[in-house]
Amino acid sequence: MSRITYVNGDYLPEAEAKVSIFDRGFLMADGVYEVTTVVGGKLIDFAGHMARLRRSLGELRMDAPTSEDDLLAIHRELVRRNALEEGLIYLQVTRGAADRDFAFPPAGTKPSLVLFTQAGPVLERESVRRGIKVATVPDLRWARRDIKTVQLLAPSLAKMEAKAKGADDAWMVGEDGFVTEGSSNNAYIVAGGKVVTRHLSNAILHGITRASVVRLAAETGMNVEERPFTVAEAKAADEAFITSASAFVTPVVSIDGVALGDGSPGPIAKRMREVYVAESLARAI
Ligand code: PDD
């Protein structure tokens, strides 16, 4: 079934959805994005995604394409037109179409706004039942990973490198030997009863799921340490997991072929997933 997408004010069948070859998103990766999960036709953590979008736009001095009320209405209309029960809504804003120039285009150039849906299971996934294997790879990205830009070549290459090593996903590692994050998710280990995840800085994306999981872990009495951890520390951990809008909380069962614990999803990862899913479904709009 062909999807109905949204492009600059119009709802269009995907075959008719087009942007200019001069769009700066296409020519310069001059754009930002958000991915919001839909379960039961409702949006998870929508306010968080809008807050981060606002921040990303601000950091890049990019105009907002429209109001957040309009963006909510567009998300809901795409859910309705595509009868989307479970899946994702992808939103991308770029600095618009303009003559190719490293300088920003003239004031008043309209940002481009594109949204599309991607149907698929979120709650029940094989990756959650069996846990994922990760491989560590060098983090080749730029220095402002806190901005959710569409420059996704380095994480795409990281994921392919991990797959070539027989893993499901990559954990990217800085030159200092500390894990930054997954190719498209935040990374956690559990050691000595503590949940450890890298602190917020320009080195990682400030995950919306991470914010909820860190809060919920503390609320359920878990000890959370926000600090960097090395690959060696991760391999010696009792368990590990990742978080993202699409993965929610997904257990990691091995790192570079080294099994964690007994090699099956750990109890704390499972518990965090249950708690996160229950809370986010209750708050979905
Ligand atoms: N990725 N780190 C990176 C590098 C990411 O790309 C993402 C999200 C996250 C998790 O952020 P959140 O919890 O807000 O989804 C962390 C999205 C899902 C993607 O690119 O598909």
Automatic annotation (TrEMBL):
Report what the protein is called.
Answer: Probable branched-chain-amino-acid aminotransferase
Q: Enumerate the GO terms in the molecular function aspect.
A: branched-chain-amino-acid transaminase activity
Per the record, the similarity remark reads: Belongs to the class-IV pyridoxal-phosphate-dependent aminotransferase family.
NCBIfam families in UniProt:
PRK06680.1 (NF005209)
Named cofactor requirement(s): pyridoxal 5'-phosphate
What pathway or pathways are given for this protein in its record?
A: Amino-acid biosynthesis; L-valine biosynthesis; L-valine from pyruvate: step 4/4; Amino-acid biosynthesis; L-leucine biosynthesis; L-leucine from 3-methyl-2-oxobutanoate: step 4/4; Amino-acid biosynthesis; L-isoleucine biosynthesis; L-isoleucine from 2-oxobutanoate: step 4/4
Q: Which reaction does it catalyse?
A: L-leucine + 2-oxoglutarate = 4-methyl-2-oxopentanoate + L-glutamate; L-valine + 2-oxoglutarate = 3-methyl-2-oxobutanoate + L-glutamate; L-isoleucine + 2-oxoglutarate = (S)-3-methyl-2-oxopentanoate + L-glutamate
Keywords from the UniProt entry: Amino-acid biosynthesis, Aminotransferase, Branched-chain amino acid biosynthesis, Pyridoxal phosphate, Transferase
A single cellular component GO annotation: cytosol
The record's section on InterPro entries has: Aminotrans_IV, Aminotrans_IV_CS, Aminotransferase-like, BCAT-like_C, BCAT-like_N, Class-IV_PLP-Dep_Aminotrnsfr
Q: Does the keyword Nucleotide-binding apply?
A: no
Might you give the EC number(s) for this enzyme? Answer: 2.6.1.42
Role this protein plays: Acts on leucine, isoleucine and valine.
Q: Name one GO biological process term.
A: amino acid biosynthetic process
Q: What class of enzyme is it?
A: transferase
